[in-house]
Amino acid sequence: MLDRDALLFSPTRDGVPSSDDNFYASDIVAAQEAMDAEAAEVLPFQFNQCTYDLGYIRQPLYACLTCLNNRAVCAACSIACHGEHELVELFNRRHFRCDCGTEAMGAGSCCSISPRDDAPANVENRYDANFEGRFCFCGRPYDPHTETDSMYQCLTCEDWIHHACLFGQHSDDNASPLGEDDFDMVICERCVKGNPGVRKIVERYAGREDSGVMIIGKDDQVLGKAVLPPDEDEETEGAKAEQVGETEGEKAGETELEKSAEAKPKLEDPAEDGPTGEAKRKAEEGEDEPAAKKVKTDASAPTLPPLGLSASNLSAASSSSPEPSTSAIPSTSSQPTSASVSAAPSSPTKVCRAPPVLPPGESPLAMLEKEGGRANIYLEEGWMMRWCRCSQVAAGLPLTGFGLHKCLPLFFDFPYMLEEEEQYEPPEDPDAHKSTFDLGMEHLLNRMPRAQALDSVRAFTGLSDRLKTYLRPLAEGDTTITKELIEKFFDEERERRQASQQ
Q: Which CDD domains match (predicted)?
């Protein structure tokens, strides 16, 4: 009996044993069942709705190497429109609009599941080497059948990085200073060095004691690991921090709202103000963030916004404010999950709780780079709640340096660092669990008149019974079923049908 891998990945035609092989009928049935199971696992969703009209959202993408210009399409179009093309699965990407049916994929490009052809190119989409099938610092193509190393998606650029390219050892070697379960997200070295906004945020935390923003120092020493109090695990501490945070947040929120009720008009519903709105993104998954929206701010004197304003509704709140102000800054509703998190509330504060500013070039990250180390950042679980969210400048302190006592504006361009992003998930396919045979029969019978459908079922049942009767003695006699024997059966069937019609 052939095993599942032999059936799916054999050198014969599509995993089905070739006519030159000796095999049992059960092998063919098993091969079909294996392929049905594989299809249900890979394609558990419906593919009759293109996401183009949803605009720029975070969604699963598939780069098409067959069409021009290495563009990408949504999950539905990857099946309905590009099913015969060479595709590369990119997984989730933020702020991306489906390219199917746009002029960016070449003249005459059309989407078969929506009335769209040669639409204008999506100018806000961001492309990189992943869209050409190359990943990581090393630029290697990804082959799911041969790749054995673990890969991690960078929080910022969303490229996929090999474990070996991060730590210098294969993930199976168990020799890395950090294991897969020791960190939640990674920010790759290219983003740390090439993105000034990201650099400004992480440098103050990276490698600092108990920050939870880790780097790998000299001799594979892990710097910045969060420390839990003795006799308390992370879950217990996180529950305590959450309870305390909720109580303090409610009190602070009531106070600030009372102070600002007379001075400021009531904010409108952010879901109605925003250009896309929460209703539009309701189908997206909480694992990933809404599309990042850049917000311009004014340097006027800041005032504390009402609590509960989220990063995803930042632009909406800004537009509804009576005058420009740097106070329209996001806060998150999530709560800390570790001891070091409890010092960094999710609501805007006046007190800066970030690690003290060090002289230029003396931060652990800068020292690591001087020593030639890898500047990759590893974020421990609960990292979103570890950032300081102070939004006002303390009296007498200048607006210079690392945004002294004014940390939250640093996240204007990176709202996904403050709260989980929403992600579009294709609708589930209710027929995904059904076999190809069942789907074929349903498709056929549902389109036939009832009387004709019943006749077809009876005819199929009769043919199946006669074939079993024909093959049973051959199987009992251990006779190999050949092409000639099958042709002989259908010749006899043809003669029987002709005789009955006379």
A: UBR-box_UBR7
